[in-house]
Design a protein that fits this description.
The chain has 3 domains: 2-99 and 196-270, no CATH class; 115-190, Arc Repressor Mutant, subunit A; 302-405, 3-Layer(aba) Sandwich (Aminopeptidase). The protein has 15 helices and 17 strands. The protein has helices at 7-20, 32-43, 57-63, 72-80, 103-111, 122-135, 140-149, 156-169, 187-190, 202-217, 222-225, 232-248, 293-300, 359-376, 396-401; strands at residues 2-4, 46-47, 83-87, 91-95, 138-139, 172-178, 181-186, 219-220, 251-256, 261-265, 280-282, 321-326, 329-339, 344-352, 381-384, 387-388, 404-405. Helix 2 (32-43) crosses helix 4. The radius of gyration is 23 Å and the shape is globular. The termini are far apart.
């Protein structure tokens, strides 16, 4: 086991993690639609989230890695058959190449081995399937309107649950999206004909998880390899795969100062890594690089929580803070809201952590990142209500940010 205790060792690990996540180079996956396609193949999933105080999380993740990305591109990837929607550790877009690895969970739901909804209404599910088969794709609102507009049709809530159960069991797939409204169709009509639909063995699934996590994160803890997957048999298989690869010399274990042990491909620590970037990244709270909070705290000493689930009186930083990444450190967080009707971006609270960087370089990097981020939000103006440390509010550059038009606050 390799022990990493020196600051420069931890710095190398951080750079390795950021490089594997595509957060060091300006265009690690290319541009636009082709870049987005390559990005999700590398990352393995992009989490979908409903919170819309800023541009939704799945678009935000792509924006951080793919120049010229547009929110319409995820639906284009869906229509092209490059990605599909399903459950990872949460609702997500996944690369179509990984479709077969969604089959074990679908099978477990269908067999009753595990549950999505406790009580399956099979009669309702069969009726829904018959309707989709004969009438074509269906939206949730089609059922909702039927509840009031067609006599004898189903109560909306049970019907919506049946629709979602069919989707989770794999009989239906999302074929299209209009904003946050999904259209469902028969899997056989959505799935490209060349997609592998062979059920993976438990060992194949475990191999896939290990390879995927090491590829997109650079290294992972044993717990992180099965992040939020509660299948005991799968966890056992992953541990077995790791132990076998360790014995064969394909993997190594590294222990950091806290005592935490990570699994890493042999020789990775000797590879040359990209240089650190001096641009700041404004990331989503659901970004692949920060979603594993324990890992984030161990590697970056950044204690982060989404406080939208915390009662307002108990919030420390705000409703929906975005992590601020500079070089190899998380240097702050920003609670903000995009007011789309009047195209205004409101920063409610900007909090900088203690860090070793020059104050001016941090501020200028933030202002440059903010301008690009506001354009991504389709906002023309920006205001700053509160900043920590408080004395920064007196800095001329922050005074220029307040209520200025984007592109005029140099």
């Amino acid at each position: 086991m390799i022990e990493l205790r020196r600051p420069k060792d931890m710095a190398r690990l951080r750079r390795l993690a950021l490089s594997a996540q595509g957060l060091l180079n300006t265009q690690p996956f290319g541009l636009g639609l082709a870049g987005a396609r390559k990005a999700i193949k590398h990352l393995g999933y992009v989490q979908i989230d409903t919170i819309s105080v800023v541009e939704r999380a799945h678009h935000h993740v792509f924006h951080a890695r793919v120049p010229n990305y547009k929110p319409s591109m995820t639906n284009q990837l869906l229509l092209n058959g490059d990605i599909f929607e399903y459950w990872a550790h949460a609702a997500a877009f996944l690369p179509m190449d990984d479709f077969r690895y969604s089959l074990p969970y679908k099978s477990a739901l269908k067999s009753g081995q595990t549950h999505w909804f406790r009580n399956r209404d099979e009669k309702l599910m069969n009726e829904l399937m018959a309707r989709v088969r004969t009438e074509g794709p269906i939206k949730s609102r089609d059922i909702e309107s039927d509840a009031t507009g067609r006599a004898g049709w189903w109560d909306w809530k049970p019907a919506k649950k049946a629709l979602e159960q069919l989707y989770m069991e794999g009989d239906l797939m999302v074929s299209n999206r209009e904003g946050f409204e999904k259209t469902y169709d028969l899997t056989e009509r959505v799935l490209p004909s060349d997609v592998d639909t062979n059920m993976p063995s438990m060992e194949e699934f475990a191999e896939h998880l290990v390879d995927r996590q090491l590829h997109c994160h650079g290294f992972a803890s044993l717990k992180g390899l099965t992040y939020l997957r509660r299948n005991a048999e799968l966890r056992k298989a992953v541990k077995s795969v790791v132990n076998e690869k360790l014995a064969q010399g394909g993997l190594e274990e590294v222990k950091i100062y806290s005592g935490e042990v990570f699994i890493i491909q042999a020789g990775t620590l000797e590879r040359r890594l990209p240089r650190l970037s001096s641009r700041m990244q404004i990331l989503s709270p659901f970004d692949n690089a920060v979603i594993q909070r324990a890992r984030l705290k161990s590697l970056f000493q950044f204690d982060f929580q989404i406080e939208c689930y915390v009662p307002a009186a108990n919030r420390q930083f705000g409703y929906f803070c975005l992590p601020l990444l500079y070089r190899d450190k998380f240097v702050g967080r920003m609670d903000c809201k995009a007011h789309r009707k009047n195209r205004h971006f409101e920063i409610k609270y900007l909090h900088f952590e203690q860090h070793e960087f020059n104050e001016d370089e941090i501020i200028f990097a933030f202002v440059e990142a903010l301008e690009k981020f506001c354009l991504f939000q389709d906002c023309d103006t920006v205001s700053l209500a509160k900043v920590h440390p408080k004395y920064l509010s007196q800095r001329e550059i922050f005074q220029k940010v307040t209520a200025q038009s984007i592109g005029t606050n140099e």
